[in-house]
């Protein structure tokens, strides 16, 4: 199985590293526009093989899309990350042009591929990829909800003082500081509602910390995060390539689900060899429904901005 990752920067290279280390794909192609950069990252990752015991072939290329031919999955991480104080939405002006040309190039050599969108603002870039390529909606998947859910589970585990892998929880809605919706009502500690262990006040703090999880890391690091984002992409790619049919919150094109149409937004999906195999339209309460509608309005407004940027 072959995976191409466009953008060999922090997230792209980490994702290549995790995919190789875990043996998720037999071949990984890293592509970047910076001369020699992807080649260097690929070589560095390959030189871990004998110490960590993987056999994935990792190849780096400078803007040579012919080497990406027949990829089963293509991950798009090309573009600029935010700096402290910025929102993800502010990246739209530069990243929209990059993403549009990247997906066009990818499809020339891998017309049947499944695209995983990472570049921010991710919901808008997912929508852009869908509309500009005309690909069926099951083949364009935005990565954000899985990362936000990982952060949610981490903050819950810290509040509970219990291992994160015993905590389950999901974040839906837009992948933005004010648009994501951590579903605290449905979060559980090994099946037991977390509300039996944590006060409403603590749960609200966990939700607030989750929503600004990316901004907090950007403030600490000076650029946005990469370890958890890279691992989240690898998890998603694994579910596709190995047809695991995991339930993952992803940004996908909705047609009536959650009362929304014509946007890409984070909802629980079954992810398998065909990409998005099912969208789960779960029952939300009135408060969650209102938050989702508000989030969808914000996501839709960003899509409208694309019209002027790409005109
Ligand atoms: N959806 C999500 O959950 C997350 C999204 N992100 C987003 O992912 C993107 C990448 O972040 P980082 O890896 O930290 O940035 P980075 O700056 O480390 O890497 C980006 C890479 O893209 C390359 N690039 C730029 N234009 C290109 C083009 N036309 N073709 C090929 N490569 C090109 C650059 O040369 C650079 O190496 C950002 O937009 C960031 O906001 C980051 C973390 C999580
Ligand atoms: O915070 C950012 O800008 C990058 C990102 O999407 C995340 O880490 O969630």
Number of extended strands: 14
Helix amount: 40-55%
The biggest beta sheet reads: 6 strands, parallel
Number of helices: 10
Pattern of helices and strands: EHEHHEEHEHEHEEEEEHHHEEEH
| Overall pLDDT level | 97
User: What is Rg?
Assistant: 19 Å
What would you note in describing this structure?
The structure is a single chain. By secondary structure, the protein is of the alpha/beta class. Helix content is 42%, strand content 22%. The chain has ten helices and 14 strands. Strands 3-2-1-4-5-6 form a six-stranded parallel beta sheet, sandwiched between helices. Strands 7-10-11 form a three-stranded antiparallel beta sheet, with helices on one face. A three-stranded antiparallel beta sheet has the order 12-13-14. α4 links the parallel β4 (73-76) and β5 (114-117). The longest helix is centred in the C-terminal third of the chain and has 24 residues, at 286-309. The chain is globular. The protein binds 1,4-dihydronicotinamide adenine dinucleotide and oxaloacetate ion. Oxaloacetate ion binds at residues 81-82, 88, 120, 147, 214, 218, 224-225, 229. Residues 1-142 form the Lactate/malate dehydrogenase N-terminal domain. Belongs to the LDH/MDH superfamily. MDH type 3 family. It is an enzyme of class 1 (oxidoreductase). InterPro entries: L-lactate/malate_DH, Lactate/malate_DH_C, Lactate/malate_DH_N, Lactate_DH/Glyco_Ohase_4_C, Malate_DH_type3, NAD(P)-bd_dom_sf. Keywords: NAD, Oxidoreductase, Tricarboxylic acid cycle.
Topology:
Blueprint: E1 2-6, H1 10-21, E2 27-32, H2 37-46, H3 49-52, E3 57-62, E4 73-76, H4 92-109, E5 114-117, H5 122-133, E6 140-142, H6 145-160, E7 167-168, E8 171-173, E9 180-182, E10 188-189, E11 192-193, H7 200-211, H8 213-221, H9 227-241, E12 246-255, E13 261-272, E14 275-279, H10 286-309
Parallel strand pairs: 1-2, 1-4, 2-3, 4-5, 5-6
Antiparallel strand pairs: 7-10, 8-9, 10-11, 12-13, 13-14
The structure holds 1,4-dihydronicotinamide adenine dinucleotide and oxaloacetate ion.
